Description:
The chain is of the alpha+beta class. The chain folds into 2 domains: 11-57, no CATH class; 73-172, no CATH class. The protein has 3 helices and 8 strands, in the order ββββββββααα. It has helices at 113-118, 120-150, 156-172; strands spanning 11-14, 19-22, 25-29, 39-43, 49-51, 55-57, 73-78, 95-100. Strands 2-1-6 form a 3-stranded antiparallel sheet, with no helix packed on it. Strands 3-4-5 form a 3-stranded antiparallel sheet, with no helix packed on it. α2 packs across α3 (156-172). The termini are far apart.
Amino acid sequence: MAKAQLHKNQRVYVKPVGTWALIEHVVPHWAKGIEEPIRVHYDVGLGREFAAEELLNEEPLTGNVQSNDDHWRVVRARNKWQPAEDCARHPVPGTYPVVVTGDAEWGGWRVPGAEYDLDPSKVEMQARLIAAAPQLASFANGLVDWARKSGEDMPNALVELAHDAQDILAHVKGQG
Length: 176
């Protein structure tokens, strides 16, 4: 029995072709009298279906440091409002970034198509920044904790940075 290892609209590297593509359809192959598919192939719009072994998952753009088990990541979604030929200047033509902020692949942050088209590189940077927010918050918390423990042994510049980090964290938590 086979289970789907990848999902629709996921960006994958197609090893036999040597290119990146989006999964357009998950294609289960059924046998009569069996409740689960016997194998699953993926249609990526390249003329044939591929097995999961022929595809590589895109690595998330975030690092390994996580705060409170948050694993925010940037995934690619298919650009439904413009064909890839019309947006060749975009960093990844035919797609736009989606920041997934939960365990499911559908929740999180998206940008309107018209806004993405105005400045794709700015939106790409914003997506990476949002995805890195838990790590940045963890870093800021660490800096504030370290400053509290260090007492008066810190240089003034570091004290100011720790105060700024504390103010930003209070603002993020809605306390400032």
